[in-house]
Each structure stands twice: as structure tokens, then as C-alpha cells.
What we know:
Blueprint: E1 3-7, H1 14-23, E2 29-33, H2 38-46, E3 53-57, H3 63-68, E4 73-76, H4 92-109, E5 114-117, H5 122-135, E6 144-146, H6 149-163, E7 175-177, E8 184-186, H7 199-210, H8 212-219, H9 228-245, E9 251-258, H10 265-271, E10 277-285, E11 288-292, H11 301-326
Parallel strand pairs: 1-2, 1-4, 2-3, 4-5, 5-6
Antiparallel strand pairs: 7-8, 9-10, 10-11
This protein binds nicotinamide-adenine-dinucleotide (NAD) and (2S)-2-hydroxybutanedioic acid.
Amino acid sequence: xxxxxxxxxxxxxxxxxxxxxxxxxxxxxxxxxxxxxxxxxxxxxxxxxxxxxxxxxxxxxxxxxxxxxxxxxxxxxxxxxxxxxxxxxxxxxxxxxxxxxxxxxxxxxxxxxxxxxxxxxxxxxxxxxxxxxxxxxxxxxxxxxxxxxxxxxxxxxxxxxxxxxxxxxxxxxxxxxxxxxxxxxxxxxxxxxxxxxxxxxxxxxxxxxxxxxxxxxxxxxxxxxxxxxxxxxxxxxxxxxxxxxxxxxxxxxxxxxxxxxxxxxxxxxxxxxxxxxxxxxxxxxxxxxxxxxxxxxxxxxxxxxxxxxxxxxxxxxxxxxxxxxxxxxxxx
Length: 332
Ligand SMILES: NC(=O)c1ccc[n+]([C@@H]2O[C@H](COP(=O)([O-])OP(=O)(O)OC[C@H]3O[C@@H](n4cnc5c(N)ncnc54)[C@H](O)[C@@H]3O)[C@@H](O)[C@H]2O)c1
Ligand SMILES: O=C(O)C[C@H](O)C(=O)O
């Protein structure tokens, strides 16, 4: 029996993500948690004739405890989205506290669950989550994932369009680093099938993958950021976890993980300027991340340049998240 939880289930991502989970054959029980509206979303989804039972919880009456207890996988798209002119880091002040409180719930009620963090800024919210779990003595780095799958989805779609291929789903393109602007590093040189895109076309494609989120924020004119494509991406990642749990082998997803705690992570950390958190292809198994795959030695000279830029931004974002929980070190 697999129990899946969506925290932030009434939101723009939460509702379609919950729908996709309700349709999944891998889910037996679906618990929807939000500060508003979740019983209504649950009632609506519960009429769909698939096997998962659906329940909705609010904070009252120990709703967080009831929603999280017994969870196998908790997907978190709770928090505010960007408006035009904002960076993801501008969301930190509000979303950091939301993640801290929800992850405290994970630590108390579902310490063995897989935790998938969608809430931005992912480069900081994942370190916040890790530090909260560490504080409670229940941190398992092989079960905590920052969801960067939307960058993969965009790289497949935009590359297919530039390459003139009708079906983006044939592409496999690693996107590594973090999840904001120039911390997002698409590795077009490692694309399968190979693509020959160079010069200004390559620069424009890389920029579009890095800043694809802004395109949606601008098009929505103040009404939020990517929700439907994100629900698809979040579900793709969640289902990969559930397939691995069900025993399927050879599943690899790019995801933002705590490198020192994942097998193979130390080699990635050494290649990635000593950063503790980084998105790389990660092999998934029944108990979570089984191997972080170090593809950094294979990148092109051009991509090395992109990575140098990414390291600086990521280091600052990671530190900001860690400091939010452990406190900034005393000045000497
Ligand atoms: N990782 C990614 O690739 C990616 C992609 C798109 C959006 N996002 C991020 O996902 C987050 C959600 O985006 P959205 O468009 O769904 O926003 P939204 O405002 O539509 O929905 C957010 C939901 O979170 C709920 N919420 C707020 N505080 C909560 C709490 N303490 N506990 C439970 N629920 C709470 C709200 O009530 C709301 O229903 C944003 O931070 C956004 O930046 C990340
Ligand atoms: O752009 C955003 O703020 C949302 C999300 O991170 C995205 O990449 O679409």
C-alpha cells in the first residue's frame, strides 16, 4: 500500500499534481494537505474511478499529523509563486518558513518518507529541509530530492524545436546545477540523440532553458508561474520514485540532492567546486537514491564556463538556506 501526500494541494501546481497522482496505478492512498481548500479538492478527486482513496486535511484538528502519518512519499508545492520582475530568491522570506514548518511535520510524523521539494527557491529550500531533518536526527539524504525535472522537460521541448524534431520525448538531455537562472546548466553536448547546434543558436537555446520560467511568469501577467508543466514534471519525478520502489531497475532522474549523503556524491562534490548540493543524474532504487552519477568530467569547454557561473550563485543560495536553520556563524 503506497500513501502519497501533496502539501500545498489546493494551489496551481497542487491541484493538477494531485489529479495525476489520483490517476496513477502506483498510489493506493492520497492525502491532500493545504492551509485552505484541500477538503474540496479531495472531495472532487475522490469521485474519479481509480483505486486511490483521497482525503483532504487542513491545519485544524491536527490535520498535518493526520495527513503525513504513514506517508511513503510527500510532494511539496506549498508556497508563493513569482510575479513578473521577481527572482526565485525573492520568494525566500515567505517560503523558507513554510518549508521549515512542513519539514518539521515530516520529521515528526513521516521520517521515512521520500520528500520531493518543489517550492522555490529550490536551491535554498532543499538545504532548509535537510537542516530541519538533521536537527530532528532523521535526515536520510537518499530520500530528500529537490525537483528540477521541469528544467529537463524544457530542455527536451526547446531542443527538439530548434533541432526540427517533431517528438521532444525522444531526447535525453542532462540539466545539472541548481534551479534558477544561470545556476541551471543544460548539457547539450551530452544530448541523446546527438544535436548539432552551435554559435548563437546554442547560446539562445541554453538561455531559453535557463530562463524558461520567466517566459511563463511574464505570460501569466502576475497570476503566478508554471503550474501545469510543473505538475507534469513533478508527477514524472514522483512516478519514477514509485516505479523504483515497485522494483523497476535502471531509473535515472536529474535531481538536486545533498551530495555527501548519496553514494557517488563525493566524486560529484569534488568536481562541482566542493558544493554540498547539486542536481545531477541520480539512479533510483527501492530505498531512494542509490548513486549520484558524476557526468561533470564529460562536459564541453563551453559548458565548463556555464558551470563556473553556476557555482557562485549556488554557493550563496545554499548558504542562505543552511543559515536560515542553523543561524549565521558568529563574526570573529
Ligand atoms: N521546482 C520547480 O521547478 C517549480 C516550478 C514551478 C513552481 N514552483 C514553485 O512552487 C510553489 C507553488 O507554486 P504554485 O503556482 O502552485 O502556487 P499557488 O499559490 O498556486 O499554490 C501554493 C499553495 O500552497 C499553499 N500553502 C501556503 N502555505 C502553506 C502551508 N504552510 N502548508 C500547506 N500549504 C500551504 C497555498 O494555500 C496554495 O494553495 C512556488 O514556490 C513556486 O515558485 C517550483
Ligand atoms: O519560474 C518560476 O518561478 C517557477 C519555476 O521555478 C519554473 O521554473 O517555472
